[in-house]
Write a structure and sequence with these properties.
By secondary structure, the protein is mainly α. The chain has one domain (16-429): Hydantoin permease (Orthogonal Bundle), CATH 1.10.4160. 75% of the residues lie in helices and 0% in strands. It has 19 helices and no strands. The chain has helices spanning 18-29, 32-44, 47-75, 79-87, 89-127, 133-150, 155-180, 183-188, 198-208, 210-214, 217-220, 226-255, 260-266, 271-300, 307-323, 330-355, 371-388, 395-400, 411-429. The radius of gyration is 21 Å and the shape is globular. It is found in: Membrane. This is Cytosine permease. InterPro entries: CodB, Pur-cyt_permease.
């Protein structure tokens, strides 16, 4: 590893136990998006295939986040800095910032739409007032945006309240659905309303935590050993993710709905349940706005002093997406994430673990833009899009160029493997001086 300090290295006294890192991952998995994706899976797959998709999808996530986390543990560096090894400093800046901006702004829009729908449902069920969802989305999008820009001291305590409350509400929702709709019979006789392939289901699962897996080194760099990284990754993601997606899938299968706010209303969850949904979405979504704003700042070359402006832009675009119906494009958005992020990870893994043989003394930060890294990332992302069905959202394009939609194996995994293969080949063909 080159001797120049990056200012991000972790000191020995800053190292933490694997349990403390696992708790971070568990908290990330207990969220509304996981319930929504679980609902999508339940709407398109049998319950048995839902479980298979979850296990394989999160298995892929745990596999690559362990490698990313171990690299972070070795070097003490976060993902954005580590990416400078494979992509070059400028290349990492543009790619990482662009991917994170797309992810954060898209999630902000989706969660604002969910929050707006929940709030409208809550008012309608409690006091009979009908407010259009788009108005509620603007209202809550603005509240979340202001909170992200100016802070709210009580937000941490809201999070402590919202996460356990959401778990309780979800448990009650499953129980109510099973009782109210004779769930056992429904599950036994269930046929998916809008069938999807198992490969598509796996891609959806990967997308729920694709970004989290990629930036795992941001947290795992504080781990004490590689073994602790692996334990925190597997035990932090797999059990919690399986539970949350299964809850969403069960409620969707039994009620026939995958929109979580509609499901909770359908099963007669009390107003406190919808309040929990709103609070959980609120506490999660300000992070999307803030992170999206920082990514835009980095992309545009601003320093952190202008984060309020870029956060406002990120949140404003996200709220606009909520109003125009980004929630209806959830599957397409998730497919895009499941293509971009794993391809990026494949490039970074190839650089450190194959070319660098997993030794931190072989790791070096490259200046400028690394053509090998950028070409590998683009190749992996393109293959993941083609084989993972991302382009299926554009039927006109598929009709003109059917080669852009060739389902084969697992799209995100294809992206990782292709990015790694291309990087290794380019490194052999174009050796560095």
């Amino acid at each position: 590893m080159n001797e120049k300090s990056t200012g991000f290295e972790v000191k020995q006294e800053q190292r933490q136990s694997w349990q403390s890192i696992a708790i971070v991952w568990i908290g990330s998995m207990i969220c509304v998006p996981c319930l929504m994706v679980g609902g999508l899976l339940g709407n398109g797959l049998s319950l048995g295939n839902v479980v298979i998709a979850i296990l394989i999808g999160y298995g892929i996530i745990c596999f690559y986040m362990s490698f990313m986390g171990m690299q972070g543990c070795d070097t003490g560096l976060p993902t954005a800095v580590m990416a400078s090894g494979a992509l070059g400093e400028k290349g990492a800046k543009y790619v990482i910032s662009s991917v994170l901006a797309i992810a954060c702004i898209g999630w902000f829009g989706i969660q604002s739409a969910v929050c707006g729908a929940s709030f409208s449902s809550m008012l309608a069920s409690m006091i009979g007032i009908q407010i259009p969802v788009w108005i509620s989305s603007i209202l809550w999008g603005t509240i979340m945006l202001v909170t992200a820009c100016y802070g709210f001291k009580g937000l941490k305590w809201l999070n402590y309240l919202a996460v356990p409350l959401l778990l309780i509400v979800c448990g009650y929702g499953v129980w109510a659905a099973m009782v109210q709709f004779d769930g056992a019979t429904v599950i036994a006789d269930y046929t998916p309303a809008t069938p999807i392939t198992l490969m598509s289901g796996i891609s959806l699962v990967v997308a729920t935590f694709a970004v989290g897996g990629a930036i795992s080194s941001d947290y795992c760099r504080f781990a004490k050993s590689r073994k602790d990284v692996i334990k925190s990754s597997i035990l932090g993601v797999l059990p919690a993710g399986l539970i949350m997606l299964l809850i969403g899938a069960l409620m969707s299968i039994v009620t026939g709905q995958y929109d979580i706010s509609t499901v909770l209303t359908t099963v007669g969850v009390p107003a406190i349940g919808l309040v929990a949904l709103v609070l959980a979405t609120w506490t999660t979504n300000i992070t999307n706005a803030y992170s999206g704003g920082l990514s835009l700042s980095n992309l545009l070359g601003f320093d952190e002093s202008k984060f309020k402006i870029t956060t406002a832009v990120a949140g404003g675009v996200g709220t606009l997406l909520a109003v125009i119906g980004v929630l209806n494009q959830l599957t397409s958005f998730l497919s895009l994430l499941s293509a971009l992020v794993p391809a990026l990870v494949g490039t970074l893994i190839a650089d450190y673990w194959i070319i660098g043989r997993g030794k931190k003394e072989n790791f070096k930060i490259r200046e400028g833009v690394s053509a090998k890294g950028m070409i590998s990332f683009v190749a992996g992302a393109l293959i993941a899009c083609i084989t993972g069905g991302t382009f299926a959202a554009f039927p006109t394009l598929i009709t003109a160029l059917p080669i852009l939609n060739i389902p084969f194996f697992i799209g995100p995994l294809n992206g990782i493997l292709v990015a790694m293969f291309v990087y290794i080949i380019l490194y052999k063909l174009l050796p560095e001086k």
